Structures are given as structure tokens and as C-alpha cells.
Amino acid sequence: MYPEANKSYTYEDCKATADWLLAQTDVRPTVGVVCGSGLGGLADMLKDQVAFNYKDIPDFPQSTVHGHAGRLVFGTMKGRPCVCMQGRFHLYEGYPIQKITLPIRIFKLLGVETVILTNAAGGLNQDFKVGDVMIIKDHLNMPGFAGNNPLSGPNDERFGVRFPCMSDAYDRELQQLAWDVGHELGYGEFLKEGVYCVVGGPSFETIAETRMLHKLGADAVGMSTAHEVIVARHCGMRVFALSLITNQAVMDYDSQEKANHEEVLETGKQRGKQLERLVSTMVTRIEHNNNLV
Ligand SMILES: O=P(O)(O)O[C@H]1O[C@H](CO)[C@@H](O)[C@H]1O
Ligand SMILES: Nc1nc2[nH]cnc2c(=O)[nH]1
User: Which of 103, 146, 221, 279 has the fewest CB atoms within 10 Å distance of its CB?
Assistant: First the structure.
């Protein structure tokens, strides 16, 4: 077990960190964004930035993965107050699952109402191409099936109920908004929707595994996001998430393709600007009271 595996982060711990942050910025974010691998450019779009390195924030984990800068950035996106994680945490970094998702509870205590998550993922759906953007409509939580769920352990009702519903995890209005905005921006050709499957990583999938996940109903596979979604929904925030298909998951024994993190980051660079435009335009249409403009 990892040294911190049994440490739980209480409501008071999360509140202390949120209060520490609020004392140092006037921004009162209603939208929280989590940037996936190589997609941290979204945070750079914020105006009037107040940024913190993760290492300076009490109780915050540190980013250890290339493509995850490790900064929490407050600011405004086209006038809307936002907070943006430029870098997220993954199970394979060795953090307990409650620590990976700690920032999401801090978002809640900062006043965030809507969480937007992005990630890099391997495409399983044979109709997907590298560079496609998949609006996530649902997820398969493989670590969760093995008992590794961020809500395991004592439940604090101040965050949410013991048994939260997940059949409405991905907000349908926000999915529709993404379609509408995507088509307005001329992104229809590479906009898709589908089911994201989270695995533990860090090894990429074997061919037998990609075939199995595809058969189970997954359209894309990655190593993040679902844990954050569960915690965000538990404490009542609205969730929108998308995957950039950075590589085709290898499903054929004749293929010469090999999944690698460099390709993941490279695809992020190529599609990054469009993804930033999609998300920032969506943000302008989300009202503070969680309605759409
Ligand atoms: O999910 P994000 O953080 O975008 O990162 C994805 O990219 C990395 C693999 O290249 C893994 O960490 C996978 O989860
Ligand atoms: N598990 C997994 N994560 C990814 N992140 C980006 N691409 C992939 C992939 O092919 N598999």
C-alpha cells in the first residue's frame, strides 16, 4: 500500500484549503475546468490570472506526468469567473483515489457549480479517427468494479448522499450545448459522442483488453476523469466531459501501431486551439445559476 492510502480528506481539510485559496484571490469561480494530458492551454486562456503551483497549496497532490503543468489558475474566461486545473492526478501516480479527487471537492467549496473535464483517450470505436473530440455521455469505471471508488469509506452528508445516482452523471443540456457550439464553430466533422472507459494504467492496453473494452460498450479508453465525475456528482455539481481521441487503441494483431504518450501530447497540440474555443464558448453560455444563457 502507498503511505497515504488510508488517509481520508475530511470536509474540514477541504474547507481549509478552499478558504486558503479564497483568501488570496477575488475570483469567485462558478465554473471549474480540469485539463487533460497536453490540453493545459485552456488555462492560459484565462484573463487576470491568479495562479498557484500545486506544491504551494495545502494538502494538494503534485503533478508527476509530462503534459500536466501542476498549476491551479483562477481568472475569467470571456468574463465568467473560472478556476482551472492545469494538470490532474491519476491512480497510476500512486495517489490514493481520494487524493486524486480532492481538488473536485475543493472546487465545490470554492463555489463551483459546473465542472468541465477534458482528457486524452485512445479510440476504440472504429468510426473514430485521431483528432476526433468525443462528448462523453457515460462511463465504465473499471477500477470501481474492483472496489476502488473515490466515495469508498465514511460518507460525509455535507458533500452528498451515501449512494449517489450515476445514471444522470453527464449533464444532457451541456452535451446538447457542446453539439450546438461545435456545429456553430464548424467542428461537426470531428465531433462525436460516446462512452469513456477508465482503467488504472499506466501500461496501455493489450489487444485482448482493447477488444474486451470495445465489446463491453466503450468508445474510448483512458486513465482518468470518471473518478472526478463521481465526486463532482456526489456533491451536486453539473458535469460536462470530453475526450480528445489522441490515438487509435490497437485492436488488431497485424497492426504495427504502438500506443505512446508522445503521440498523445502531439495530438493535443494539433487539436488544442479548437478544443479551447469549444470549451470557452460553452463557458460563456453557462449561467451562474447553472442554467444555459
Ligand atoms: O486522462 P488524461 O489526464 O488526459 O491523460 C491520458 O493520457 C495519459 C496517457 O498518455 C494518461 O494519463 C491518460 O489518462
Ligand atoms: N488507457 C489509455 N489511456 C490513454 N490516454 C490516451 N490514449 C490512451 C490509450 O490508448 N489508452
Answer: 146
Residues that constitute the known binding site for a purine D-ribonucleoside: 205, 247
Active site residue: 63, 77, 90, 134, which one?
A: 90
> Would you report the helix, strand and coil content of the chain in percent, each value rounded to 5?
35, 25, 45
223 is catalytic: yes
Q: Closest-lying ligand to the alpha carbon of 119?
A: 1
Q: Nearest Cα to 106, choosing from 147, 153, 52?
A: 52
Whether 234 is a known active-site residue: answer: no
Q: 0.90 cut: is pTM over it?
A: yes
Q: How far apart are the first and last CA of the chain?
A: 47
For residue 174, give Cα distances in angstroms to 110, 115, 222, 234, 272.
21, 11, 22, 18, 20
Is residue 66 part of the annotated active site? The answer reads no
User: Which residues on neighbouring strands pair with residue 80, listed in sequence order?
Assistant: 77
Catalytic residue among 69, 148, 155, 261: 261
Residues 231 and 182: their CA atoms lie apart, in Å, by: 27
